[in-house]
Design goal:
75% of the residues lie in helices and 0% in strands. By secondary structure, it is mostly helical. The chain has a domain of 84 residues: Tetratricopeptide repeat domain (Serine Threonine Protein Phosphatase 5, Tetratricopeptide repeat, Alpha Horseshoe), CATH 1.25.40.
Amino acid sequence: MQMIMRYVLLIAMSVSLTACAIGAPDPNEISAAEKAKKHTDVAISYYQQGDNVGARLWLQKALEYDKSYGRAYVVLGSIFQSEQETQLAQKYFKKAIKTDPDSAMFHNNYGAFLYSQQQYEQACVELEMATKDPFYNRRAAALENLGRCYQQLEDAVQADKAFQRSVNLGGKSAFALINLSKNLLAAGETFKSNAKYSEFLQLVTENQAHHTADSLVLGIDLARKNGNTSEVVTYLLLLENLFPNNYKEYKESVQ
C-alpha cells in the first residue's frame, strides 16, 4: 500500500485486507521448483567432491519436490557417466531433454556424452541443436564440440565452419585455431593459415593455451613455407624438448 494513503483509509481497509490474506500464498514460502534447484546445487557440490552417493541422495530429494526439474536429471546423467553406467547415463540425459526440449545446455551435455561413446552421428545432431540458441552462454564451446564431432565424421568443411563460428563468438579455443590453421595450410591458404596461427600464439603468450606436439609441428611447417629458418629451428627445439617421441616421429617422417 502506498505511504500517502490516509490513516482513516488504512483502518477502513484493514479488515478486508486481512480477510483477503487468509488462504493466499505465503511470500516467504519456497516453491517446489526452488527447493529442487537448491537440492540440486547441494548435489553438485557433493559430486564435485567425489561423493556420488551423497549427490544422488540430494538429487532424489530434488526430484521429489519437482519431477520436471531437468537440471537434476543432467547431473544424474553425469554421475552415471562417470561411473561408466552408460545406459543409466543415457536414460537421464534423455529425461532432462524431455523436460525442456529447447535447452541448449541439455543438448550440449547429451551430445558430449554421445561423443564420448563414439556415437558421432547422433552426437553431432545434439550438438547442432545446442548451438541454435543465440543466448546460450556456452555457445562458443558447443560450437567447438560440434567441430570436433564433424572431424570424427571426416567432414572437414562442416568442422571448419563450426570452429570458425566458435572463434567468431569470442571462443578462445586453441584447438579450433590450430585446426583452422592446419586446414588452411593444406588448402594452400598460407596467409590465412598464418593469421590463425598468430591468434593461437597470442593465447600462448597470455597463458591461455600451451603448445602441443601438433601446434609445434604446424609451426615448423608454416615457418618452412614462409622461408623462416630461425623459426623452424626454434619450433624443432621446442618439439624435441617438450615432446621427444613426437620429435622422433617427425624427423622420421621428413627423411
